[in-house]
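Q: Given only this backbone (150 positions), what sequence would you predict?
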């Protein structure tokens, strides 16, 4: 082997040794970058406009919309209740074809929710009619399905 070949071989060996492993400076720089990135991620997650605050805001909006929907449903149930219709009895017969008060058990019971200020839900039952009560004379009543037509 010539002198120049030995020199090149030695030069290649030195280059290989330099590429093995990690230097202390590279390790310190990597740790510093990881600390900076973790700080940024923590501030994004916990900051004033972070992920957790947005999740809490979304939860509050959902609960508000849920309360509003329950209130609207309760109002609708109250509108559906027909209590001012006359009773049709033998003593107080109504005209044939007149809508009268429902007999006991002719309506469906549905759960009615009422929320209080401390976010508790109070459950009650509400009767929702699925039929009309129509007088057939002599104090007799027949149920007629809602939206019934001839």
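A: Predicted residues:
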């Amino acid at each position: 082997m010539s002198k120049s070949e030995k020199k090149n071989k030695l030069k290649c060996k030195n280059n290989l040794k330099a590429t093995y492993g990690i230097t202390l400076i590279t390790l310190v720089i990597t740790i510093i970058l990881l600390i900076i990135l973790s700080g940024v991620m923590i501030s994004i997650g916990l900051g004033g406009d972070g992920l957790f605050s947005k999740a809490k805001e979304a939860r509050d909006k959902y609960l508000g919309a849920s309360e509003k929907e329950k209130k609207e449903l309760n109002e609708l149930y109250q509108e559906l209740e027909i209590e001012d219709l006359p009773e049709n009895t033998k003593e107080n017969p109504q005209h044939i074809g007149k809508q009268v008060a429902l007999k006991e058990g002719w309506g469906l019971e549905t759960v009615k929710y009422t929320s209080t200020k401390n976010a508790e839900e109070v459950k009650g039952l509400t009767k929702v009619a699925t039929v009309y009560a129509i007088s057939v004379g002599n104090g007799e009543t027949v149920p007629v399905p809602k939206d019934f037509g001839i």
